[in-house]
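Record type: monomer structure entry
Structure origin: computed from sequence
Chain ID: A
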Amino acid sequence: MELFFVFIIAAIGSFIQSASGFGYAILAMSLWPLVIPFQSAVLVEITTALVMVAYISFKLHKHIRFKLMIYPLIASFITSSIGIATLMSSTETFLRRILGGVLIIMAIYFIFYSEKLKIKPTRINGIIAGAVGGLLSGLLGMGGPPVAAYFLSVTDNKMEYNATLQFYFLICAIYTFGIHLVIGNITGEIIKYSIIGIVGVGIGTTTGLILFKKLSVDIIKKALCIFIMIVGFSMLIKG
C-alpha cells in the first residue's frame, strides 16, 4: 500500500510540475509523510525529483538562461546545508509543524499575491530567493516556490521560465543528493521507495510535457494551492 501511494503521488506531482514549472515537491511532501517517516519522505523526494528535473531540463535545454541562476545557486548551496543539518537533528513533530506552516504561507502567496508581486532581476533578489529556497529544500525537500516566483518575474516567456527553473532544480538536487549520499542517508529502503517513485515520475512527466502548452497553468496552481492549504492546517494542528 505504501509503495502504491508513493507511485501515485509521484505520477500526479510530476505531471503538475511538468505542466506548471513546480508543484512536485509540495504535493509529495504534503502526502508522503502520512505513510512513511518524514526524513525518508524528504530523501525519496530529492532522489525522484533529480530524475524528473534532469529529463525536463534535457527536453527544454534550448530555452535555459544560465546567467540567471548564478546568484540563486550560490546562496542555495550555503543554506541547503543548514537545512539538511536541521532535518537530521529534528523531531518528526517539529518537522511536520514547520511543514504545515510553510505550506499555508505558500498557498496564501500563490492565491493572493503571486500575480501582483513583481520581482526585479537584481543580484540581491536572486540571492534571497536562492537562500530561502535552499533552506526549505534542505529542511523540507521543497524549495521551489521562492525560486519559481523569482524566475517567473525575470524570464521572458513560459518556456524560458520552465527550462531555467528545472535546470536550477537539477543542480540543487545533485548537490543535496550528494550530501545525503556522502553522510550515508541513502539507504536500501530509500532506494526501494525511490525506484517506485521514479516509475511514477516517468509517467507523469511524459504526460505533463505533452500537455504543457494546452493546460491552464492558473487552474492547476489554484487547485494545488487550495489543497496544500488544507494539508498545511492539518499538519500544523496535529503535528
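Annotation 1: The longest helix spans residues 158-182.
Annotation 2: The radius of gyration is 16 Å.
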